[in-house]
Description:
It is built from 4 helices and 5 strands. It is an alpha+beta fold. A hairpin with a 3-residue loop joins strand 2 (about 65-70) and strand 3. The relative contact order is 0.16. The model is unreliable at about 1-10 (pLDDT under 50).
Amino acid sequence: MTGRGQDVTMSAEQTTPGEEIDAIIAAAGGWKGEMLSRIRRIIVSADADIVEDIKWRKPSKPEGVATWVCKGNVCLADLLKKAVRLTFPQGAQLDDPAGLFNARLDGAAVRAIDFFEGAEIDEAHLRELVREAVAANR
């Protein structure tokens, strides 16, 4: 709610990261918006201390990148042309017995999961992977 004399820019700066992630989801629409919404629900349900943030704003991506944090970055989500990518900055340190990681497998630190249209989400294993990332940060 804005008072008289305040401009729209002021209220945009006062949005919460959660509201900004809502806007990213709404702008994506379709299957990508639905997929990101489902992924987000799993991430925030994994640990009560996880907080949402928006990072890495730049002219080519003014909305920034949806990021989940707990004692450091846990994971971040990007909307790609044909996928929703969930990146774990310290993914190479994590056990992935379910084989969820399917992207960025050759890096020394980072691992990612690309979710494609129609893909099923292994909620239990994804939640466990998020918990392991939180534990690694702690």
